Design the sequence.
């Protein structure tokens, strides 16, 4: 879903879509006749704005809304709340 979410957010933000196209089109124009052989990993890594768009879509809509079940391995007190060893907890990814 992360690729679909990225595309959806870009469709909703035409100014960001334009900025992204300005970043990738010069390279894509050069390799358009044979993308599989001409487009390199290094070139894709230079697409800074594309990478930031992708990570932002992960932040806005995490693919996994909560972590899997975790347990405390020892007794611990956090902000005045005491948890015993074996107590279960989950992390809400959307709250991070």
Sequence:
């Amino acid at each position: 879903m992360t690729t679909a979410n990225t595309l959806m957010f870009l469709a909703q933000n035409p100014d960001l879509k334009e900025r992204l196209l300005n970043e990738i089109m010069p390279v894509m124009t050069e390799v358009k006749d044979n993308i599989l052989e001409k487009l390199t990993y290094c070139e894709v890594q230079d697409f800074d704005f594309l990478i930031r768009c992708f990570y932002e879509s992960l932040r806005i809509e995490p693919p996994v809304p909560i972590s899997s079940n975790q347990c405390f391995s020892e007794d611990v007190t956090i902000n005045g709340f005491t948890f015993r060893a074996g107590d279960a907890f989950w992390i809400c990814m959307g709250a991070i």
About this structure: The chain has two domains: 2-60, 65-96. Residues 2-60 form one domain.
